[in-house]
Every structure is written in C-alpha cells, then in structure tokens.
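re: ur question from yesterday

yeah so i grabbed the chain u mentioned. its 371 aa long if i counted rite. heres the sequnce exactly as i have it in my notes:
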Amino acid sequence: MITIEQLKDVKERTEALHRYLDIDNKKVQVEEEQLRTQAPGFWDDAKKAEAQMKKVKTLQNWIEGYNEVKTLADELELSFDFYKDELVTEAEVDDAYNKAMQAIEELELKNMLRSEADQMDCVLKINSGAGGTESQDWASMLMRMYMRWAESNGYKLSVANLQEGDEAGIKTVTMNIEGSYAYGYLKGENGVHRLVRVSPYNAQGKRMTSFASVFVTPLVDDSIEVTVEPARLSWDTFRSGGAGGQNVNKVESGVRLRYQYKDPYTGEEEEILIENTETRDQPKNKENAMRQLRSILYDKELQHRMEEQAKVEAGKKKIEWGSQIRSYVFDDRRVKDHRTNYQTSDVNGVMDGKIDGFIKAYLMEFSDSEI
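ran it thru and got these structure tokens back, copy pasting raw so excuse formatting
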C-alpha cells in the first residue's frame, strides 16, 4: 500500500509538469495554429501545410500527455480516499499509483527533449567493424534490435540502403526511423557497440569480441535550412542488387551521391558518400539521397554547436561522439552502458528492442548539457 508521501509526490510532480510544459499557453497556441489551417488555399502548398499540421499535432500531443497524467493523478487520489472507506483494495490503489507514475516518468522524459533536432525523425546507420563474419553478424543483430524497438514504439521504419555480408550478417545498413521524437530518443545510441560471446562461427567455441558502429542523425525536412553547394555534388547510378524481380537487375535505379564537403569552421575537406536503393524509381532514390545529405550537413552543424557548448561548460561531463558506449556480454548475461553505468541482465530483452532503460539513463545524465 502506498504512503501519503508517495501520493503527495505524484501530486507535486503533476503540478510541476503543468508549469514546466506551460500547458495553459500551449492551449492558446494550438487554437491559434489551428486557425491557420482553416485559411483559404491552405493546402495549395502541400509541404508547408503538412509542416503546419505537424506543428498543431505536436502541441496537441503535449496537452494530451499532460491531461493523461492529471487524470491518473486524480484517480489515484480518489482511490486513496476510497480505500479509507473500504471501497477499494490495497492492490487497486497500488495499481493506480503505478499507472500514474509511469505516465509521469514518460512525460518527464519527453520534456528533456527540448532542442529543435530532438523532435525530428532520424537516420540510423550501422557499420560492421573489423573481424569479417563475426562483426557482420553483430551488425545484423543490432539492426534487428533497432527494428524491434521502432516497431514496439509505433515508429515507421524503412531501409534506405543495405549491404549484406559475404557469408552472414550485414556490412552496413541505413534506416530511416520516422515518428515523434525519434532522433531525441535515439541520439544517445551514437557510438561503438561491443559484443562479447562464444562465437557460433568458431569451431573451437572461443569467446570472441566484435564491434559495430552506430551513427544517428536527424532526418531534416524542408522547414530546416541547409546549404548544399551544387558544384560540390556528383551522381553515379548502378543496378540494385537483391530481390525485386527483373527490374532490379536491368535498370540502374540505385544512386550514389558524392559530396565534397568543406568544414566552414576548420577548412578541412572530406567526401560524403551516400547510396540509396530504397525504391525502383531512380528520381525517388535521388530525392531520398539528397534528404540524407541534408541530414548529415545539419548534424555536422549540430555537433559543432555541441562542441562549442562543451568548451563553455568545461566542468561538465563531455559526451564523446563515436566512442565505445556499450558492451553486450552474452555469457555473463550483462549489457552495460559505459557512459551512465546503467546495466541489465536481460540480454534477450535488449536484443529484442527493450532499450528504453538505456535511453532514459542517457537522457537523465546528459540532457542538461545539450543545446
């Protein structure tokens, strides 16, 4: 049975969310934004209209999320009072408490995602490390993990490019994950993921270590201004491999984009290479590749901002992009994040996409150090 202090904590956190989220102001905002959708010719510019509808939906989601928390908090207080009159059981009060706490924690977590990029869809790319079949198999396991996570959270996922391994697994995969706050939740997955297991590919049954890199960037839309210099851009086309019938083998629908990027801050140059075989339509694949390029350029600017912020806040713990972040040790039944020290023994659950504990631990520790 919960205590009066636990009930008080729920009420205080609910009131705090009302203040932090500025719910009263959001209600006024949503009315104003909805009025804009009723203007004559609103749908003449489809992309602009969709961006406006997305803005309205985002505001509504915040209000609905808070309303759910408030309703559950009120129901808990009612259950607590009913228990005094022996109208409900201890179990029913505890159940009401658990529901209220879950809703509060989910909204508090979402409130940590305040930057413009956090709200965006994302591009998630996995590259296998050195080690051939071992690492390629590990990369495919990570791909499955993120696909399961996206599915369980109701996100739309599409594979933009996939290169299969020589014997098993994959060499690389690029996936678009679309849905509210996809980038905000997955940005902490950036880095090197390390697997330790008894290898099924080793005849001696030795314990092997494999690595794979995960890169997460915001998937920008037309509302984000990103400068692409046409003179630095070049295209190749190629025949897509894999299943898909005769069209895939005969038509050069796959596209390869090369962009000679020059860092505006350091002057350093590098080639950005993007391949897209998502559809059989070459113009569509070009459009998708350009969207990924704009996402990469936007992310580079975002990382520069973060580096500048890190210099200003030198006393704070710095987030190292691209460093080894997590170890998955199968025979010890342990998955540990080295940045937050969060760990779990539910290895099977993690590989089935249950990574919310790692996501929450990352956001709890690092959200206040971001822009």
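noticed a couple things. The domain at 228-309 is CATH 3.30.160.20 (Double Stranded RNA Binding Domain). also Confidence is low (pLDDT under 50) at residues 242-249, 312-319.
anyway ttyl
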